[in-house]
Amino acid sequence: MMTLVMLPTLIAIVIFLVNGSLGAGVAVMGAFSLIRFRSAPGGAKELLAIFLAMTIGIAVGMGYLIFASVFTIIMSVVMLLLETVNFGQMKHSMRQVTVVIPESLDYEMVFDDIFQKATNYVELANVKTSDMGSLFKIKYIVQLNGTMTEKELVDALRTRNGNLEIAISRYVTKENEL
């Protein structure tokens, strides 16, 4: 989310700096494409850092030293502020629940009443067969509401799945996506 907040400002500054200079515009485009596509794939924060460094470098290279200094300070404060308040971050109560059930259970509704009591949000993310189709491995993304502890949730799920494997872990989104 920080990238979505800051990238439009960076692009506007680059456009402002290369206004009317076709050579500078082509140089910026070439430099960015070399840096971005010749390096290892990174996440949105890395892309933002590269673009910020290029924008500051362009401003300094074109002789706008005071502007580059003020811009650097302002953007650093904004980045620090967004990072401090966890802007756009998921709530810490998001969990990934993985449950193994026998094929005889209807996985679509078997845990609905338990999740209704224990969560504010539940999403069936993945269903996979294992042990030659005799078991289902189901992944849910849930947001706990605090009425049950994780242990109470595991105990409730265990009674329903016949004491097969259950895992609750912190939900992590893919880091390499914008």
Summarize the model shown:
By secondary structure, this protein is of the alpha+beta class.
Walk me through what this model shows.
- The protein is α+β, with helices and mostly antiparallel strands.
- The protein has 2 domains: 1-85; 94-170, 2-Layer Sandwich (Alpha-Beta Plaits), CATH 3.30.70.
- Helix content is 50%, strand content 20%.
- The protein is built from 6 helices and 4 strands.
- A 4-stranded antiparallel beta sheet has the order 2-3-1-4.
- Helix 1 packs parallel to helix 3 (44-61), helix 2 runs antiparallel to helix 3 (44-61) and helix 3 runs antiparallel to helix 4 (65-84).
- It is elongated and about 70 Å long.
- It starts with a helix and ends in an 8-residue tail after the last strand.
- The mean pLDDT is 83.
- Keywords: Membrane, Transmembrane, Transmembrane helix.
- InterPro entries: DUF4956.
- Pfam families: DUF4956.
- Provide the domain count: 2
Total number of strands: 4
Provide the low-confidence segments as ranges: none
- Count of DSSP-assigned helices: 6
Secondary-structure content class: alpha+beta
Radius of gyration: 24 Å
Biggest β-sheet, characterized?
Answer: 4 strands, antiparallel
Anisotropy-based shape = elongated
| Helicity level | 40-55%
Q: Between the first and last Cα atoms, what is the distance in angstroms?
A: 8 Å
Strand order of the largest sheet: 2-3-1-4
Strand content: 15-25%
Mean pLDDT: 83
Q: Which sequence of SSEs, written as H and E, runs from N to C?
A: HHHHEHEEHE
